[in-house]
Predict the structure of Dihydrolipoyl dehydrogenase family protein.
Amino acid sequence: MTETETSTYDVVVLGAGPVGENVADRTRAAGLSTAVVESELVGGECSYWACMPSKALLRPVIARADARRVPGIAHAVQGPLDAAAVLARRNAETSHWQDDGQAGWLESTGADLYRGHGRLTGPRTVTVTGADGVRHVLTARHAVAVCTGSRARLPDLPGLADVRPWTSREATSAQHVPGRLVVVGGGVVATEMATVWQALGSRVTVLVRGKGLLSRMEPFAGELVAESLAEAGADIRTGTSVTSVSRADGVLTVVTDRGDRIEADEILFATGRAPRTDDIGLDTVGLEPGSWLETDDSLRVTGTDWLYAVGDVNHRALLTHQGKYQARIAGAAIAARAAGDPLTEAVPWGAHSATADRHAVPQVVFTDPEAAAVGLSLAEAERAGYRVRAVDVDLTSVAGAGLYAAGYKGRARMVVDVEEEILRGVTLVGPGVGELIHSATIAVAGRVPVGRLWHAVPAYPTISEVWLRLLEAYRG
């Protein structure tokens, strides 16, 4: 007979990635008892298969590329990267896929950690089945927060499972460099992983169904990244879809809708994400298993008064930093409701409203060059009905860019709402621009008037002087 233990908490959190950790941290800080359930590693996708390993892999690639553009040091970095050392550093940054440190931090907040598969088994109830066979029934007095994240979505191709394709997990945790790698997709994972493995010695072919890379950004972002990848030796094929994949004697054969046959050692499908909600008991509370969960701005699931969906699962912004932002909002909302305090979820930019998800989402793509954006692109702003003007600047006009690298290539755009004289969006592409995006985020989130930005004087000679060039171009 299975042993069953029952416990009651104020809050039960499903998922111990960065989002779940932050929900637990905020609710514990408010004095609420909190349980966290995790079926894999505490720290989640970001720590072991996404943000941390990918950036650990990319950093030496970008550092070498930057150094090669600086006279006086370029000659010293012309050799290949030490792939073994790069992979070893990546392994260290992921704590060798051991979660002792993160589990210790979570427990230090006062939250109780339950390891095992957790499923909703009714309103405010989560049942956890542990590896030891013990079943824990956890009841929440106030809230259950679903923070289970997302997984890679694979296309419906016959026999695909038999060829053991890479997803983002395999691409960031591989322990060897494939001789030939096919990357299917043109988004963030595809471009970053193409950058990594091409630099580490793979012969990379990128197959993109659409017209170009990074289609959710301004068109020039994908164009500059594609140009750089091609210069590095990658083969970029747009308007191309995979029709079949097979493996024989260790060799993959990829056939496209154009009739191309490409041989490779590995294939990475970076073709979107799906919510990890298919086996968490949504049906027991009247919701569709495997669905994205719709929420209000306090992250409470529509039609419920106790269920929250935080991070990727709500499909608002599939980014770790936005998920952690949502976690802070959700934690504050849960605590306020538990205390019977009034909420500000109906007030834009209030303590209980995830307003930034709609207006000021920043993202950096750590390719060479980096692509960074916040807010709306020109096309998105026009579709939303705003009267806007795009202001473009070539980053070669900025003194700091020329000092950063010889032959610096980059471009910046700000999308100005001409009625309100505020910024609706900013996009920056070029080496080192990822560190500039927070200033743009402040301008967009703070609705800083363009006239006031004129008085925010950028230090000389830095790349941030692009702000002055953009404002000069806008004023004419």
Q: What stands out?
A: The two ends are 79 Å apart (CA to CA). The longest strand covers residues 135-146.
